[in-house]
Amino acid sequence: MIAKTCTKTEGKLVARVTLTLSQSLWADVISLVGDFSDWNRALYPLRRDRAGKWRLPGDLLVGRAYQFRSPLVMGDNQADAPVHHASNSDNFVVVTEPNKRRVRR
Fold first, then answer.
1. CATH number of domain containing 65
2. Which of 12, 40, 46, 80 could form a disulfide with 56 if both were Cys (CB 3.0 to 4.6 A apart)?
3. Rounded to whole angstroms, how far apart are CA atoms 42 and 38?
4. How far apart are CA 92 and CA 72, in angstroms?
């Protein structure tokens, strides 16, 4: 699941994005990779919360489209758009356009 909200932090508008995966996943490490990390697997590991779900919250710049490779197949309904990659796999896109109705101060 991908949850997005826009909020003001230290006077700047940011997109707060949280990726959540099921607690039923058995793995030692699950990481998110994308163009925001130069596809580095070590930079964004998900952590387990108290309920055992894998979570990764973060703040991103607004007005951008971030491409990432899903740590697991989440389905097209979890991201804003799929992008077919030349390696015959799919990447996904999260768009961080501010929605004025959802901005919290």
1. 2.60.40.10
2. 46
3. 11
4. 11
